[in-house]
Amino acid sequence: MIKLQERPTKSVPGITSIFISFNYKQEIVDAIKSLDCKVYDKKNNEWEVPITHLASLIDKLSNYD
Prior knowledge:
alpha+beta
């Protein structure tokens, strides 16, 4: 399952970001890496992308979950 949460931003521009967590699957990692702006947080095992990328993110991830 892919979990998306909107929270205050940590590392990307904007007021809020989408934080993405999931059980490792290379196809999902590749889909997230294809976005222009993304940051991986090793401590929390989650990706952060700007809220403005939400529609694109959902399009890319809908094939996997």
